[in-house]
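Good morning C.,

I know you're traveling, so I'll keep this short. The sequence:
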Amino acid sequence: MEGVVWLSLSWRARVNVEALNMAESVGYYVKHRRAPIAVYDKSEGHFVIRYVPTISGESVGHGYQVWLANEARREGLNVCKLCRRGELVKHGARVTLTDEGIVDDPKEIANPEKAHYLEKELIKRCVVEDVGGFLVPTRVPVKRTSRFYVGYMLPALEDLQATTLEPQFHVRHAPSLVGREREMPESGQAMYYVETGTAIYTESFALDLSGIGFTSMVEVEEAVEKNERIKRAICAVKALYPLLSGMFGAKRTRFDPDYELLSAVATLSVGYPFNVTSGHRRAYVAETMRRADKAKELFGGEFKVLTYIAEEGVDSPEGVVMKESLEELISELVNEAERVLKEV
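The tokens, ready to paste straight into the viewer:
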């Protein structure tokens, strides 16, 4: 584990009237994604199930990879055509292998000895596939585990009382078309509901910086040289900025939510992977610092904790690097990541 460089962060955001992740339509009613969570009920003395609005890890991960593609292209790094367009197929459709000249003969796909070559070639050709992983359904499936880890965005347990789902009524109205339904299938008036969510959301994210640019399936070896690996890793850190700013999800053009980043904590650990405490409770920064100190005693290595706080009730203990803005937080993470990756 000597060469492991691991970035982890969690954040809390107030998100009002959002439709960032819709699950299904039932007639003219479009439902927000929701999920059951276990919550301790003090009055009952046991855990109970509550259904709350959520934003899936797939939604968050898709948004992150789209911004990663933009950042990588801005830096002049390789991004495949589909990822540039936000179509994250990642060569899961085998026809793309021949379309792009990765294999000349479709029969080559059935050759199990091609597995390592395919992983290495796809990593070289696309930063998004390098960082976000892929699965090519060849005879020996070529699987690359994502270098980043993200789950559902959930309402913070400590602020569950500030969570709700509410349908919003809308009408599309074209007076000049009313009464002309016999001439055309469209109606001059259409009613519909969009279910919106409001919550103090928390999300956690982890990124294996040291795994970027290396193959991992059949054998571990460099797919790109060290300078490019560092550039790719820096792009992966910079792509976190729009994610924490709330620039992801669906229905943004007419349901762009009222989004405010309340606080965030991040760690950069060298030598051993370490995940921060999630932001379900306001003590998460202090708890992360306490755990980081104990982890350093147990495993050695380097553990740096940084935070940005814009809400009341979140304390920053001694040893945590305080930043005045999200921009400063991301800038510091970029500088620290570049420093440690040059040293390992």
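Safe travels,
E.
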